[in-house]
Design a protein that fits this description.
This protein folds into two domains: 184 residues, NAD(P)-binding Rossmann-like Domain (Rossmann fold, 3-Layer(aba) Sandwich), CATH 3.40.50; 80 residues. The two termini are 34 Å apart. It is α/β, with parallel strands linked by helices and 302 residues long. α3 packs parallel to α4. It contains ten helices and eleven strands.
Length: 302
């Protein structure tokens, strides 16, 4: 397939590009700078110069494609307006392609509620989004509701990488502070658990959904459930900090003051299942041991 990817140099997008190219897909990807153009070329994609904040400049000139995978986000105060305007241009561009286009839109697990003790939720759960990401619900409605495209939604858990292209994802901040300040920070409470996923496993889910998912379907990208903050912090402190590496706990409000209001998600306790993707798409995530992954990143050469 000929696939156009936004966010192709990021944690999720770069893994998707490598995965799709390895499976003989032809990739076109948006590049907002010369550095991005070089990286995308090195990944094997064909760069298309442009920025998600100005889709009018490029969306009408896309090459013939069979699919769009949208993973880009500014993560700034403008992210809701940026996504809305991007879809204003990208959906019509998809509808004008010679054949019907599959459109994979990226949501997230923070669009769903916190779970209660002994509760596990799946894709049938109703939205209860964190305020900073409520705008995604409107984007999802547009993609799934447009009769001119085959809309499919992927909801990734918190994504981490093991260092390829410099990507560590959700582990980055604590790895850095363990190395530089001999400190790891827990947000909210030590027993909070976040569902997580390695970017390579997530990329494989996108590929399988691209080929096999039904129109208007939604899928959880959950690789590992039930890793408490305390366990993850201890692993990072052990492998990246010194002998006396400190593990501190801060309130959710303190985290929001330091990092931005989006950081409320880092204290959003959830347990979620991935059975649908495994059963219906044949997805089989490989990275099931966060301890082994963190230990591997601490080896010389990382």
């Amino acid at each position: 397939m000929r696939v156009f990817v936004t966010g192709g140099t990021g944690l999720i997008g770069s893994a998707i590009i490598e995965n799709l190219i390895a499976h003989q897909h032809q990739i076109f990807a948006l590049a907002r700078s010369q550095a991005s153009r070089i990286l995308l070329t090195d990944l094997g994609a064909t760069p298309i110069m442009g920025d998600i904040t100005d889709p009018a400049a490029w969306a009408g000139n896309l090459p013939a494609i069979n699919a769009i995978i949208h993973t880009a986000c500014t993560f700034g105060d403008d992210m809701a307006d940026t996504d809305r305007i991007l879809l204003d241009h990208l959906i019509p561009a998809a509808r004008q392609m010679p054949g019907r286009v599959r459109f994979l839109y990226t949501g997230g697990t923070w669009l769903f509620p916190q779970t209660k003790p002994n509760e596990v939720i799946n894709e049938s759960a109703a939205f209860d989004p964190l305020p900073d990401f409520e705008w995604m619900c409107a984007g999802i409605d547009r993609v799934l509701g447009d009769d001119g495209i085959d809309g499919i939604i992927i909801h990734p858990a918190c994504v981490y990488g093991t260092g390829r292209h410099g990507h560590y994802g959700m582990l980055s901040r604590d790895i850095e502070t363990a190395r530089t300040d001999n400190r790891v920070t827990i947000i909210g409470a030590p027993d909070i658990t976040l569902p997580i996923i390695h970017n390579d496993d997530l990329a494989d889910l996108y590929r399988l959904a691209l080929s096999h998912a039904k129109q208007r379907s939604s899928w959880f990208g959950i690789g590992i459930n039930g890793v408490p903050h305390q366990r993850r912090a201890q692993l990072i402190a052990t492998h990246f900090g010194g002998d006396d590496c400190q593990i501190e706990t801060i309130t959710t409000q303190t985290a929001m003051d330091r990092l931005g209001s989006w950081a409320a998600g880092l204290a959003h306790h959830q347990v979620m299942e991935n059975h649908a993707a495994m059963r219906d798409l044949g997805w089989s995530p490989i990275h099931q041991n966060i301890a082994a992954d963190i230990q591997s990143m601490a080896k010389p050469g990382f």
